Amino acid sequence: MGFCDMLRLLHLSDLHINAGFANKSAYIREQLKLSLNKSFERAVTYAVNHKVDGVMIVGDFFDQPQVDYALERFIRQQLTKLLDHGIHLFYVNGNHDPADTMSVLTSFKANQYFHIFDSDSFKRETVTFESGDIGEFIASAHAYKGEQRDLVKRYPVKSNAYYWVGMAHASVVNAQSTGEKTAYMGTTLPQIESLGYDYFALGHIHIRQQLSERVAYAGNLQGLNYKEIGGKGGLLVTLSENSAVVEPVDFNEIQWEAIDFEVTERAENLYALETALADNIAEHISDLGYPPERLIVRVHLYGRSKCYHLLRDAETINDLEIAISQRLKLLNVDLKDIGLANDYDLKALAREQTVLALALEIMDAPERHPELLTRLYQLPVFKDAATVQSRDALLREHLETVRAELVDRMLKVPNEN
Questions:
Q1: What is the band of 1 on the pLDDT scale with cuts at 50, 70, 90?
Q2: Which residues are CB-contacts of 162 (< 8 A; sequence separation ≥ 6)?
Q3: CA-CA distances (angstroms) from residue 340 to 265, 278, 404?
Q4: CA-CA distance, 20 to 49, in Å (whole number)?
Q5: How far is CA 75 from CA 51, 71, 103, 307, in A?
Q6: Given this model, what pLDDT does residue 236 score?
Q7: What is the DSSP letter of 82?
Q8: Quick one: pLDDT at residue 182?
Q9: Which overall architecture, per CATH, does domain 7-250 show?
Q10: Which residues partner with 128 through β-bridges?
Q11: By the 8 A CB rule, do 97 and 15 touch?
Q12: 183 CB contacts (<8 Å, ≥6 apart)?
């Protein structure tokens, strides 16, 4: 006996349900914390309403060991709701909540529907579901915070006709990531596929992605920062004798978005810039079909602007962010300088009778000043230049950088005074 009908599992991971969001304002911080609770509650309700056979949480349910009592009570209520409906809960410790640090979860160990994998030695549990289907669930946990061994290598190969489901809070080589992540429990896709499992549930990387037909990351339940944009949630996995169907399901309460915006000479003052930014953001979010009051939008600013010096002032930026948020009824807007520069006419500046004009002339034609060049080439930065050509190319590169900084330091745009 093994395949009676089909097995339906909800794959979740990386909830980080007690994340602190210390770099946010008090109001946004509170909204983000509430959103994590609402996202988890939405996932639990989905599991109950859709009568799934089991829910897998593959690591990092928590972000840190400290859990306040209000959150603890909420977690207990949600887990109890799952278990009381006869839904099996499979939990694997991650690097943020290594084994023996989370008493809130381990307190459910006596419940027949609760299955915790909290040892770095692989654990195999055979579970018979109400449908008559039988599943073999295999996982190793993080015994400590810095686990980097490939524990998946120890997992047994499928050896009977039951459904075999593997779980690991692990880094898989070549999986898409939001940036540099430590390769906790690093493994490879060929290593996982060699086990022959019907499905392998992964956690740790916060991007929802399917590495193959039967291997996937659920991503995280709710975006935690501007790198984690778009819809977030989990995966509904339907296993039958000959197939595995993996479907994304969104649960996020708040959604993060990020856009690039080129500031041009048309934005001659801050109000014009505010209008241009609001129009651009409105266009971007119009296709999302998501309530604006639950959106956090980061805008990456670049380009030349007459408002350059004002945009370097923290108070001005804050006022601009608030104005755009209120205008579009967004939860929050964050403006980030990734390449703003002053809007100036170099040719016109070079024609003036000023110290700046003289400096620009020297940088445009350094060969006319051999004594200065000799002194420059004695600087340590040119020591490794093997040829005259490489030395000259390095000089031009540095002069270009210095030119922009020099003009910025010496020039003040008239309408900003």
A1: very low
A2: 2, 126, 134, 135, 136
A3: 12, 18, 11
A4: 31
A5: 20, 6, 12, 49
A6: 98
A7: H
A8: 66
A9: 4-Layer Sandwich (3.60)
A10: 134
A11: no
A12: 148, 171
Lowest mean pLDDT among 54-68, 116-130, 251-265, 398-412: 398-412
Q: What is the largest CA-CA distance in the chain?
A: 92
The model's pTM = 0.83
**pLDDT > 50? residue 136:** yes
Q: Measured between alpha carbons, how far is residue 322 from residues 315, 328, 330, 331, 392 in Å?
A: 11, 10, 9, 10, 47
Which residue has 């946004």 as its token pair? 28
Q: Give the CA distances from residue 297 to residues 25, 178, 191, 294, in Å, rounded to whole numbers and listed in that order.
A: 15, 17, 39, 10
Residue 12 CB contacts under 8 Å (≥ 6 apart), including other chains: 43, 55, 56, 57, 58, 218, 221, 234
pLDDT tens column, 236-269 = 999 998 899 999 999 999 999 999 999 987 778 8
Q: Which two tokens stand for residue 32?
A: 């983000």
Distances in Å between the Cα of 174 and the Cα atoms of 191, 209, 213 are: 13, 12, 16
Query: What's the whole-number mean pLDDT along residues 310-318?
Result: 92
Which amino acid is it at 369? H
Pick the closest to residue 147 from 21, 214, 60, 219 (CA basis): 60
Q: What confidence score (pLDDT) does residue 180 get?
A: 64
Half-sphere exposure in the Cβ direction for 113 (13 Å, CA): 18
Average pLDDT over residues 305-322: 90
Domain ranges of the chain: 7-250, 255-342, 346-416
Asked if pLDDT for residue 21 goes beyond 60, the answer is: yes
CA distance 304 to 339: 9
Residue-wise burial string across 172-193, b where 16 or more C-beta atoms lie within 10 A, e elsewhere? beebebbeeeeebbbbbeeebe
Q: What is the pLDDT of residue 138?
A: 97
- Six-digit token string for 329: 């009824």
By residue count, the chain amounts to 417
- The Cα 251–Cα 232 span in angstroms is 6
User: 62-109 pLDDT, tens per residue?
Assistant: 988 888 899 999 999 999 999 999 999 999 988 887 765 677 888 898
| DSSP structure string for 360-384 | HHHHH-GGG-HHHHHHHTTSGGGTT
Q: Please give the Cα distance from 275 to 273 (Å, whole number).
A: 5
Amino acid letter for position 299: V
* 338-362 residue pLDDT tens: 988 877 766 776 777 888 788 888 8
Classified as helix, coil or strand, 303 is strand
Tokens 């400290």: give the residue. Answer: 66
- The amino acid occupying position 370 is P
